């Protein structure tokens, strides 16, 4: 398994910085729309109202996901600076480089991520 090493710091810092900018732009746009009360279109009938309500919910979920991912990106950048990047926060084992390349902000190895997802699914069922 290929793993992260300090020679890759600049590459991963650039990946994380780029994603941070993208997420900040998404959140800034969402905030600007909320501040101006910008609507998508003129509401004409109940069907339009239902569509507007659905799109508002989708926008809110996207904003929540972006905020959560931004937290993960910022945490990953802190780990990068603290020389703790690339190690699973749960078990301490090295995270596969392919996983880091696909999801640079991931704090967990594949096995620990699966455990977290199972726990989350169990909580959601209750």
Features:
126 residues; mainly alpha; Four Helix Bundle (Hemerythrin (Met), subunit A); 4 helices; 68% helix
Report on the structure:
The protein has a single domain (6-125), classed as DksA, coiled-coil domain (Four Helix Bundle (Hemerythrin (Met), subunit A), Up-down Bundle), CATH 1.20.120.910. The protein starts with 8 loop residues before the first helix and ends with a helix. It has 126 residues and is mainly alpha-helical. The chain has 4 helices and no strands. The radius of gyration is 19 Å and the shape is flat. Helix content is 68%, strand content 0%. The longest helix is centred in the middle third of the chain and has 36 residues, at 46-81.
Number of helices: 4
Largest sheet: none
Low-confidence stretches: none
Mean pLDDT: 90
Summarize the structure.
With 126 residues, this protein is mostly helical. It is built from 4 helices and no strands.
